[in-house]
Design brief:
Blueprint: E1 2-10, H1 17-28, E2 40-47, H2 52-67, E3 73-81
Antiparallel strand pairs: 1-2, 1-3
Length: about 90
Amino acid sequence: MYKATIAITLRPSILDPEGETVHHALTNLGHDAIEQVRMGKQAELWIEADDEAEARRIATDACEHLLANPVTENFDIHLERASASAK
């Protein structure tokens, strides 16, 4: 069993109005050192696979088919071994 933690972020060329709003709010709260905010999402998948390569393939397929929009988003997959009871 593997746990895939997937960070899904907008591509740099895509405008991020949510990030701009959060940046503006943080600036208003006095966090002037923050130069930019980009918002995204995170998904966690528990994958039954024989090895890490198979788990990565399954996670990548899930991202390419549903979790991430290939036109506007990038994704990064972090895999770790997990026990079935960790769910």
